[in-house]
Amino acid sequence: MCDITAEMPDTMDGILYQARNFRLSSGTGAADLVQLLKHLPISIEVCNANLALTMSPLDRARMYLEDMVAVLNAAGEH
Asked: In terms of domain of life, where is this protein from (predicted)?
């Protein structure tokens, strides 16, 4: 993820030039990255053959959900 300058180029060539050469570090530019992240959909995707052989689908789903909730809670604390 990166941030953007406040000045929006007028042409597609200008947008591409800016995107390739003038990206800013996250949180240092004009984009509202916090709001962007708050509106991005989150999904769980875990492909693990060992767990598929040793746990039921329901148990895996519960574990994955608990783990993701822990991550989201941790992110909310920072």
From this structure: Bacteria
